[in-house]
Amino acid sequence: MWSPLPRSELDAQIRESEDILLPAELAFWEQLRIDPVKWQLHPWADASGGFWAVGIIGQQVIYYDDIEGDFGLSRYSTHGVIDEYSCVGELHYVVRSLFEKCYGSSAHKGA
């Protein structure tokens, strides 16, 4: 039977992705990360009391979908409410994608 992901397991998954990130990506992630907190995404996150928001960049939130077991990236209009469902994959994929959008893939040189 499914149950919401405990905070301790979320923290472990975040650490695993941090270990994979290149130094420049990790520094970028440190600017985005927030202390995990539950955000609403109706109707998907209703059963779990919300999905764990773990990072913010502009009007986008990085969150953990404990139903699919992946991280997502979505816009938000109201703090604490995810606007749309989007499942991306492991956290390091989300961070790397955002890093490349912000700095380009050439920013990895020398990292």
Can you walk through the features of this model?
The protein is α+β, with helices and mostly antiparallel strands and 111 residues long. It has one domain. The chain is 33% helix and 23% strand. Strands 1-2-3-4 form a four-stranded antiparallel sheet. A hairpin with a 4-residue loop joins β3 (60-65) and β4. The longest helix is centred in the first third of the chain and has 14 residues, at 7-20. The radius of gyration is 14 Å and the shape is globular.
What is the strand and helix layout of this fold?
Elements: H1 7-20, H2 23-32, E1 33-39, E2 51-57, E3 60-65, E4 70-75, H3 91-103
Antiparallel strand pairs: 1-2, 2-3, 3-4
Question: What characteristics describe this protein?
Answer:
111 residues; alpha+beta; globular
